[in-house]
Design brief:
Layout lengths: L1 H34 L5 E5 L7 E4 L3 E4 L5 E5 L6 H20 L3 E2 H7 L1 H4 L2 H15 L8 E2 L5 E4 L2 E4 L4 E3 L4 E2 L4 E5 L4 E5 L2 H9 L2 H4 L3 E5 L6 H14 L3 E4 L4 H12 L8 H4 L5 E4 L2 H6 L8 E2 L2 H10 L3 H4 L2 H13 L1 E2 L12 H13 L4
Parallel strand pairs: 5-6, 12-13, 12-14, 14-15
Antiparallel strand pairs: 1-4, 2-3, 7-10, 7-13, 8-9, 8-11, 16-17
EC number: 5.6.2.2
Catalytic activity: ATP-dependent breakage, passage and rejoining of double-stranded DNA
GO cellular component, one term: nuclear chromosome
Length: 362
């Protein structure tokens, strides 16, 4: 164990040196441009275009060989502020890595509130740097405040040595070590309300060998990393329980295929084998959900459906396309809570047990 810990520390020191060297190379290029009397600029992949991604077997996101780049110029009024903020953030990150300390994005914002203006600006600049350096955020010693929750048959140790038991309910941490679990499957739940309902109905007691996790809507990075790590380490099935609407499907796709803004890290954030357990649009008619429990589609919903159906991973999923067609043709959507129209505990006592036992997923 001692030898293993020493080896881990050595690997970490080596990686820190690589990060420092990569940042130094960026600054060196800036200084060389200045010495030549040229306006410095930074170059990175355009992380906001789906066209820069390719999907191997339509599931695993990979950078396209002919992907487009963007240039952030120091002599352009449109990008000079972004250029300066990136250099400032590189300075902050360099000091963190050099001192082997960590800081949350929130800490960085409050220490430089007047400079960055908003937390969103800090978040975007950090994502820019991760994309430019091709280095994961955690390796830049920048952490995020978790919003996700996890519960079930799982214990793990945080990087600071804290032992976490998820038997009841725990926040999703930044880094997970020494994972211990005998869970047979992992259930991703879209919303906090559904997550809490499962706990209140003692779903974990009825299905002891299970882990449930929620990102409370669109998932944060820590929740996505946790799902990926549990899938890799435990080698168990991963199911998704989301609303039967465009945004529920979108959230599931973020876990399974990644988001366009973080596509440069998709290979380490996604779980291609995620299965859509529910709420399936086809379930609404099969279960005879009362129309009063359904919600009419909005113009925004129609636009979202049209946009999603053009994505390569959706185009290669005929069963998913069929479910999306059902939403569009019926002109109605439904939240998971619509199942309470059948019975208050229908979700935990009937719907999920039957789905898991008889294989009602796609």
């Amino acid at each position: 164990l001692v030898l293993a810990e020493k080896a881990c520390r050595k690997i970490k020191r080596t990686y820190n040196e690589v990060v420092l060297k990569t940042i130094e190379n960026v600054i060196k290029e800036v200084l060389l441009s200045l010495s030549r009397g040229e306006a410095p600029q930074l170059r990175m992949h355009n992380r906001l275009q789906w066209a820069n991604n390719r999907f191997h077997d339509s599931t695993i996101p990979q950078k396209a060989e002919d992907c487009s780049f963007i240039t952030i110029k120091s002599n352009s009024s449109a990008s000079v502020t972004r250029f300066a903020l990136i250099l400032k953030m590189l300075s902050v990150i360099y000091k963190l890595v050099q001192s082997n300390t960590y800081a949350t994005k929130r800490d960085i914002f409050y220490c430089n509130k007047g400079l960055f203006g908003t937390q969103r600006t800090v978040d975007k600049i950090i994502d820019d740097i991760c994309c430019m350096l091709l280095i994961p955020r955690l390796n830049l010693h920048v952490l995020a405040t978790s919003k996700g929750l996890i519960a079930g048959d799982l214990c793990y140790t945080e990087v600071d040595g804290t032992r976490v038991n998820c038997a009841s309910n725990s926040m999703v941490g930044n880094n997970k070590l020494d994972i211990s679990s005998s869970a047979q499957y992992l259930l991703i739940v879209e919303k906090d309300a559904t997550f809490q309902r499962l706990l209140d109905d003692n779903f974990l007691g009825e299905s002891a060998h299970c882990i449930i996790i929620t990102g409370k809507g669109f998932p944060d990075l820590n929740t996505r990393l946790m799902v990926r790590k549990l899938w890799e380490f435990l080698q168990i099935p991963v199911f998704a329980l989301v609303d039967a609407d465009p945004y529920g499907i979108e959230i599931m796709c973020i876990y399974k295929y990644g988001s366009v803004s973080m596509s440069f890290e998709g290979h380490r954030l996604t779980v291609p084998s995620i299965m859509w357990l529910g709420l399936l649009p086809s379930d609404l008619e099969r279960l005879i959900i009362p129309k009063a429990a359904l919600i009419p589609l909005t113009k925004t919903d129609y636009n979202k459906l049209a946009s999603m159906q053009k994505r390569p991973y959706i185009m290669s999923q005929p069963l998913w396309q069929r479910e999306i067609d059902i939403i569009r043709n019926s002109k109605m959507k439904a939240e998971i809570q619509s199942l309470t129209a059948l019975a208050p505990d229908y979700l935990t006592r009937v719907y999920l047990p039957n789905k898991l036992h008889f294989g009602g997923w796609i």
